[in-house]
Write a structure and sequence with these properties.
The complex is a heterodimer. By secondary structure, chain A is of the alpha/beta class. Helices cover about 40% and strands about 10% of the residues of chain A. In chain A, strand 3, helix 5 and strand 4 form a beta-alpha-beta unit. In chain B, strand 10, helix 9 and strand 11 form a beta-alpha-beta unit. In chain B, helix 4 runs parallel beside helix 6. The radius of gyration of chain B is 20 Å and the shape is globular. The relative contact order of chain B is 0.12. Classes of the chains: A alpha/beta, B alpha/beta. The interface between A and B is large, with 44 and 49 residues. The complex binds thiamine diphosphate and magnesium ion. The site of magnesium ion has 7 residues of chain A, from loops.
Chain lengths: ~280, ~350
Amino acid sequence: MEASPSRVNAPSLAERAYRIRRNALRMGEVQGQGYIAQALGVADVLAVAYFHAMRYHPDDPEWEGRDRFLLSIGHYAIAAYSAMIEAGIIPEDELETYGSDDSRLPMSGMASYTPGMEISGGSLGQGLAIGVGYALGLKRKKSDAFVYCLFSDGECGEGAVWEGASGAGHWKLDNLIGIIDVNNQQADGPSSEVTGGLEHLADRFTAFGWHAQRVNGNDIGALVSAFDAARSLREPMPRVIICDTRMAKGVPFLEQRERNHFLRVDADEWQQALAVLEEGRTA
Amino acid sequence: MMRNKYARPVRLTEQGEGGQGGASRLTTSAMIASLAAPGQRTKPAPFGQALLALAETRPDLLGLSADLSKYTDLHIFAKAHPDRFYQMGMSEQLLMCTAAGLAREGFMPFATTYAVFAARRAYDFICLAIAEENLNVKVVCALPGLTTGYGPSHQATEDIAIFRGMPNLTIVDPCDALDIEQAVPAIAAHSGPVYMRLLRGNVPIVLDEYDYKFELGKAKLLRGGADALIISSGFMTMRALEAVESLKAQRIDAGVLHVPTIKPLDEATIIREASKTGRMVIVAENHTVIGGLGEAVAGVLLRAGVTPAFRQIGLPDEFLDAGALPTLHDRYGISTAAMSKSIKRWLAA
Ligand SMILES: Cc1ncc(C[n+]2csc(CCOP(=O)(O)OP(=O)(O)O)c2C)c(N)n1
Ligand SMILES: [Mg+2]
């Protein structure tokens, strides 16, 4: 499968993940607070999605042949922008406008604001079901593009997620790849307490007719294998990659914070966070 | 308004490198916390505190939230009464149906989420499972109207329009911390479904200066005025009171009628006040001009044959922008300054 941008002499996926995290911290600093722990946690997943798995043209975000990336969790926009900046879809200097007046990078991701953003995802629970429509539409057009939909553990509380799961299984949508960020966190606390049932996520999707994999979402090697398996599977069924991630991964002093759904970071801690992140840079 | 997402922000194209220049650095999240102006008197979490007080005398009171207890001040009740609190997860439809079932069994559930998710996602569930049965469920929702800069997914610009169409439902839109504190026991004393718009966090307190008491179903005249009457609900009453002060300096004498209960509407008081001749009637609401207090008042007056000059201050029939809340309130005409300007212009015309 043709992949873009060109992989020749490209930075390693670990380096991509590092830069995604760095972009997220720089955007977080603009607001002083926000969904930074999510962005740090899901950076490895996005690095593999954008720089290993997905096909797209950075300078033509609406290219017909692109794989569609649906961000159901609108509050993860900071993570998606970070990846799209690294991918060259969004200019890097727009980082400093994140969440500010008249920015193209609002705090909640919206298709009407940002090149490369397929859907407006802030009302949680809609993405997977919209993905069913995308997948059916691509099939009608005889396209071989994939639909990727990123959603979250907390989002699995929404009924619409399971309507989407059921519909995709029924229609055998083998061009739909769900990615669930399981960081065991949501607005009111740990998802294991607030929502529950996370240990059975793979079984639940399997029961709806999906091919399910569960991986360490901070292990790039495991993610590459999982994305490869999801794409190359021959069975006519939708696929889901359940990614267990660690909130604030890569910045240990932020990983320790509790109540990190909406992280407040002191002004002097941003440089410290960037420095710690740099220390862990492996590429 | 059609947005061009392929145009770079003006700030970056005109000012080049690092161009912060005169451009606004106001941020979205800085505005989540409170509507209070700097230095304004506030009270923390009036809804949570009022519920806590009520819990003492109402053993049937239960609290439920859909992963937003911290963001609706319900966590205060949940912490004090963990055995009377249900965390429903991010499942607004389940939240409303569970509340309905609990009400059937004789309990009085207070169910909290954001206004958009109750009005939009859970509408059918509130309508049929709760309202049609006239069940004793109180739906209390943060982020009503334009009280967040997160964009359309979180801006409940049409919640009142949606809920006004629901039979049996009482709708309350309190102005400040005092209003909320007094409204909580009042809606609990009323047997039946209620939708209350919530201001959370550090909530301004202003009505204590007006010899005011919340009464369900009653509009309250906060001050008289010869030139205009502002009829308002929610925090727009606070803005109206501020606007009236600034208009005074320009020799404009405007009155304020606060209407914290949108449904049932206190028609008698509205008709009485609007009938005083020579006054322009201006309805101010934190809501789209479609289907809210403004159109409700217009309908009442027209049916009664009372036809003063009539204007509306409210949000346009658009999906609103994301950005900092003060910027957006100015842009859409519901800041104190924008409101004063409109009133001045209308009265001069
Ligand atoms: C339908 C809906 N209900 C509630 C919310 C408010 N909300 C925003 S994020 C969030 C938690 C979602 O869970 P998750 O994505 O797992 O949280 P995180 O991992 O980011 O902490 C909630 C309840 C929402 N945006 N949409
Ligand atoms: Mg989560």
